[in-house]
Design a protein that fits this description.
Blueprint lengths: L1 E6 L5 H14 L3 E4 L16 H9 L6 E8 L5 H15 L3 E6 L3 H8 L5 H19 L5 E2 L4 E2 L15 E5 L3 H10 L2 E4 L10 H21 L8 E6 L10 H13 L4 E5 L13 H10 L4
Parallel strand pairs: 1-2, 1-10, 2-3, 3-4, 4-7, 7-8, 8-9, 9-10
Antiparallel strand pairs: 5-6
Helix pairs in contact: 2-3, 3-5, 5-6, 6-7, 8-9
Length: 292
């Protein structure tokens, strides 16, 4: 089982850099950061750019994989996103994992005062993924249903560098079909409304989503065992980092549901805050799981 830590990049880099060192030292396989222009859980707070933060984090770590969870299709476009991905992949020595999802309507509003519907956001997500594939194939021009590019004369990747692992976030049939067609992996946190679910309801939902990915792979002629299956736990009522026992139970239940990566929130804020947890819980849980 791969284990990941979700880092909310709300602090200046001279403080945040120590967190990435600690995440690597304690034994996590990957550290993820958010990709929001704004977010309702962080009013009045700083939130650093995802790819710039990851490039900096690569300089203070050696083994740790680094990723977005998830880059936002609400305001990203194929060519600039591919350039950021390729640059961080190069700087990090191939350690980048790009989680990519439809994103938040709030980011569309912050970016360009747009207010897309859920279907329109999904259309843009599909466009972005398909556009990325065209960039990697060295297309000079491409047109999707809403996004497009033309006149690209530069290479998509530095010599000797390959495209990073693409982890697509999906919760319904259309998104899971997109994973089956284009994703190296799949990510879920449970989807809309997860904050209101009881722990048992959460595990039921993500189990159904995992079965949905298997069905999507079968529809598209893909071996269902090939996509990495990543689960973010802790956004809702289920808090795996409250204790070592809760952490180990979450990992066991995720494994039973068919996931091969579990991501939890790295301690953020102060005791009593939403995403706070005791760093010793992380250290002890990873030790028991053989990560240190």
């Amino acid at each position: 089982m791969r284990l990941g830590a979700m880092v909310l990049q709300t602090r200046p880099w001279h403080q945040l850099s120590d967190e990435f060192r600690a995440i690597e030292e304690v034994g996590y396989d990957v550290a993820y950061v958010a990709d929001h222009l704004t977010h309702a859980t962080m009013p009045g707070r700083w939130l650093g750019d995802a790819f710039t933060t990851l490039a900096a984090a690569s300089g203070v770590t050696r083994r740790l994989e680094l990723g977005t969870l998830v880059a936002s299709a609400a305001y990203r476009t194929p060519v600039p996103l591919a350039r950021a991905m390729a640059t961080v992949t190069d700087i990090s020595g191939g350690r980048l994992v790009v989680g990519l999802g439809a994103g938040s309507p709030a980011c569309a509003a912050a970016d360009r005062a747009a207010h897309p519907s859920a279907p329109e956001m999904m259309d843009r997500f599909v466009d972005l993924v398909e556009g990325l594939c065209q960039v990697w194939d060295q297309a000079a021009e491409w047109r999707g249903s809403g996004l497009a590019f033309e006149g690209v004369e530069t290479l998509p990747l530095p010599p000797g560098v390959t495209a990073p692992h693409l982890l697509l976030a999906a919760h319904g049939r259309r998104g899971l079909d997109l994973v089956a067609r284009h994703g190296d992996g799949w990510s879920t946190y449970g989807g809309v409304g997860v904050a209101d679910l009881t722990p048992d309801e959460f595990w039921t939902r993500v189990g159904e989503q995992a079965a949905g990915l298997t069905a999507a792979c079968e529809r598209h002629g893909r071996d269902p065992s090939t996509p990495r299956r990543s689960l973010l736990v802790g956004f809702g009522k289920l808090r795996p980092t409250e204790s070592v026992g809760s952490f180990l139970d979450a990992v066991e239940r995720a494994s039973t549901a068919g996931f091969d990566e579990v991501v939890v929130y790295w301690p953020e804020g102060e005791p009593g805050d939403r995403f706070w947890s005791d760093p010793e819980v992380h250290a002890e849980a990873l030790s028991r799981l053989g990560k240190t």
